[in-house]
Amino acid sequence: SYELTQPPSVSVSPGQTARITCSGDALPKQYAYWYQQKPGQAPVLVIYKDSERPSGIPERFSGSSSGTTVTLTISGVQAEDEADYYCQSADSSGTYAHVVFGGGTKLTVL
Amino acid sequence: QVQLQESGPGLVKPSETLSLTCTVSGGSISSYYWSWIRQPAGKGLEWIGRIYTSGSTNYNPSLKSRVTMSVDTSKNQFSLKLSSVTAADTAVYYCAREPSSIAALIYFDYWGQGTLVTVSS
User: Fold this and answer.
1) Could you report the per-residue pLDDT of A32-54, keeping only the tens digit for each?
2) Which of A55, B14, B30, B105 is the most exposed place for a label (fewest CB within 10 A)?
3) Residues B74-103, mean pLDDT to the nearest whole number
4) Torsion angles phi and psi, residue A44, rounded to 5
5) Do B50 and A92 touch (CB under 8 A)?
């Protein structure tokens, strides 16, 4: 089955750069997406198609891809960035589609 | 601004069927894929399945035998039914929209606020 693996937690100090990785065998063939989720709220899309940023998302959020690993980078981390982050991808072919989420990474701003 | 709102019973008895509806406002439900995603307390996100406005569906293989989705374009609503529920189905259930109909681009740009469904007798 298709799986995405994320580290459970990442910690950084304000102003530093946070990098959250997501690994999966199908990532070289499928796009990855990233969501930010704060407590009690619905997830918010922060990166789509590996590295595109939706309108309204701060420029400090960026995404990259290399082989079986995609990375969400948050430059100049702010206290408000403390949240859970989930990567997501999908396996689709013809009429078949299956969406997978990573287990999530809790970003702590020290 | 598109808005999604989940509705349905917050408490379901074991072995019964969970039923939820998502109402879409601020835009048409037509020509999009619509998904259900759930999240047990303190855990990660799990995709349940999706439906296109034509009625075609894709379900998570792990839930496929218990899931039925439907769409009512006249009401701008789509629905989820999950049968034979157990305590393991207790979760916050979200509805969400896929912005693209391209097969290789499956992701979610609009989400409902989520609704907690507890399975308990």
Assistant:
1) 999 999 999 999 999 999 999 99
2) A55
3) 95
4) -125, 130
5) no
